[in-house]
Amino acid sequence: MGVSRYVVILWPITNLFPKRTNIPTSRFRYYIYLYHAVVGQVRYEDAVVVSPSDIQCLAAYRFLPSKTFGIQKNGIILVPYDHQAVLNICGDD
After folding, report:
1. Beta-strand (E) ranges in 19-69?
2. Which of the two residues, 4 and 63, has the higher pLDDT score?
3. Which domain holds residue 14?
4. What is the DSSP letter of 74?
């Protein structure tokens, strides 16, 4: 008999929220910033397998309809649990 192990499959998320500050949505972007939320796109083709002990933060999420915030497909918005954690999102320099 082999040993049972638990793993978690994660899909990276590219942060696509615009960085420009002189656009009409700047107030909305400020609210996103206040809640430490991230708007991005799920990259299903780049799945990663990790141990449950490697997970540092939980986030509530909502998949976005196509073409929301200019994201053609696989859009997502994430808010860290308790609004205090910092999410490590791909493409967020």
Report:
1. 38-42, 48-50, 59-63
2. 63
3. 8-83
4. S
